[in-house]
Write a structure and sequence with these properties.
38% of the residues lie in helices and 23% in strands. With 494 residues, it is an alpha/beta fold. The chain has 4 domains: 5-163, no CATH class; 167-254, Roll (Ubiquitin-like (UB roll)), CATH 3.10.20.30; 263-360, Beta Barrel (Elongation Factor Tu (Ef-tu), domain 3), CATH 2.40.30; 373-493, Rossmann fold. Helix 4 (57-68) crosses helix 6, helix 6 (83-121) packs antiparallel against helix 7 (126-147) and helix 14 (441-454) packs across helix 15 (469-481).
Length: 494
């Protein structure tokens, strides 16, 4: 029986696990791959309890269809059945198509096998020919019986994969090999950012041409006009703008990506204050929106300089994911004798102009690492760590993420409910909030001992640590003493 092969991304999506979890299974030889892909039969053998019925499917269909429905159809709504009816019909069709695909694949392989066996009969002795033919007939009958034993579970999984292929196209990026899904009417660039990737781009609106990429295979469709002009030679070579096209089928795209802080250019953006969200008398979240034609490119964990005038400025960690560079978040603590924080707390209003300069800093996510991750934040060190965590979630590469938030003050865990919601929603995320006595070395050592007890092999982890200088240095030394690897221990002083 031929093997139906799935990419790592599709396999993870079908059985409801992370790519990192599958990669660990492959490293541990619990799961086999064929040219980087996984066979459905092997996938189901490893995950026999895979959930094939998705209760949220109809809701997703309704949402995506509302965005993706062609305009000519929306003009005559009376001719369309409801979203639920259309989704049900689609499900039935995909099941039928999946079974036909399995049958066709089976019979193609069967014909190949019969042809090979018939060729072998050409050299058979005349005296043994009757016996050889009878053996062939017996083999053929056994194969037909085996065909009826094709797993219904495999057919269901294939049907689900067919459904996903209709609702979402896969993009494979060369030369990195990164993969992501394009759903609904999203552009290729939007989908890549939502997936946590760092494809090159500038304006994201078709003016600059920085997201120019070459289509290797598959079909795309232009969803917005662009002012940037591609030459006839570029068009003939398959170049497109990722911000102005969506994927119609699965595609392979040759595109430049940022792999380090050196690949991100410095930017100065005149942005707008969208909201000031007060968390306590001395802490607020500053929400900033960049212009539609100018998105901030950065890697999670980096800082920028925020300026309200020549003398009123400050450096702050970006507390949001690079998945959406239009909407930036900063955690501002009220500080004595600090002109910027004083202005923010007493004078700044929504819709005022603010200048964003950056990014800077090398406390960034090691996106190519598939090691499990330990995040440790002390008090306001949560801001850059939050960006790292959200980026990790978008990339879906980490096998497991463990977050420890240490605080010495009552409002130190100022977004505790958000962290708990992550732990509730994700199977591969755990959260611990720890109260410390400020600068108490004994209690700090006990906390680190708890962490190392839960994770005795620190050398197996990527560790990110952010907070006040004195505390970070103390924690860093304790972690190194317990076996952490220097190259895998990333620190930020806030």
């Amino acid at each position: 029986m031929p093997q139906q092969l799935l990419t790592l991304s599709r396999a993870a999506r079908l059985v409801g696990v992370t790519r990192g979890a599958l990669q660990k299974k492959i490293r541990d030889s619990e799961l086999s791959t064929f040219e980087g892909k996984i066979a459905i039969t092997d996938l189901l053998r490893t995950y026999p309890a895979a959930k094939l019925e998705d209760d949220s499917m109809l809701e997703r269909v309704t949402e995506i269809k509302a965005k993706a429905r062609p305009r000519r159809l929306t003009q005559n709504k009376s001719t369309l059945a409801s979203a639920e009816v259309l989704a049900s019909r689609l499900t039935c069709v995909t099941e039928e198509v999946s079974q036909l695909r399995l049958n066709l694949m089976y019979h193609v392989e069967l014909v190949k096998a019969i042809t090979e066996k018939l060729h072998s009969l050409i050299t058979a002795n005349e005296s043994s020919l009757k016996t050889e033919v009878q053996t062939l007939i017996t083999w053929f009958q056994n194969e037909l019986i085996r065909k009826t034993e094709i797993s219904a579970h495999s057919a269901q999984l294939l049907a689900k994969d067919t459904f996903f292929r209709i609702m979402a196209a896969t993009v494979k990026v060369l030369p990195s090999g990164h993969e992501f899904f394009v759903e609904g009417a999203d552009s290729i660039l939007q989908a890549s950012l939502h997936a946590g990737l760092n494809l090159n781009y500038g304006c994201s609106s078709g003016n600059c041409g920085m997201c120019k990429s070459r289509l290797i295979s598959g079909e795309v469709r232009k969803i917005q006009e662009h002012d940037y002009i591609l030459t006839d030679m570029e068009k003939n070579m398959g170049y497109i703008l990722a911000c102005s096209n969506t994927a119609v089928t699965d595609i392979v795209l040759e595109a430049a990506e940022a792999h380090s802080v050196a690949d991100i250019s410095q930017q100065t953006i005149v942005a707008e204050v969208r909201k000031l969200e007060s968390l306590s008398p001395d802490l607020l979240i500053l929400h900033v929106k960049t212009p539609r034609t100018k998105t901030l490119r950065f890697i999670s964990g980096q800082d920028v300089t925020l300026s309200l005038s020549e003398t009123i400025k400050g450096d702050y960690a970006i507390a949001s994911c690079p998945c959406d560079g239009h909407h930036l978040q900063f955690h501002i603590r009220k500080m004595p004798n600090h002109p910027f924080s004083d202005f923010v707390f007493h004078q700044l209003k929504a819709e005022q102009t603010i200048v964003v300069e950056g990014p800077k800093g090398d406390f960034v996510l090691q996106a190519e690492s598939t090691r499990p991750i330990i995040f440790i934040a002390y008090e306001d060190g949560f801001a850059p760590v939050k960006s790292l965590i959200e980026h990790s979630m978008a990339l879906d590469l980490a096998e497991f993420m463990h977050f420890y938030w240490l605080a010495a003050h009552e409002n130190g865990h100022y977004l505790n409910n958000l962290c708990r919601s992550w732990a509730d929603a994700l199977d591969n995320f755990s959260y611990n909030n720890v109260m410390e006595k400020e600068h108490d070395a004994t209690i700090l050592a006990q906390t680190i001992l708890t962490i190392t007890t839960e994770h005795p092999q620190l050398a197996d982890y990527e560790i990110y640590l952010a907070g006040y200088t004195k505390v970070v240095d103390a924690i860093k030394n304790l972690l190194l003493q317990q076996g952490a690897i220097t190259e895998q221990l990333h620190c930020k002083y806030c």
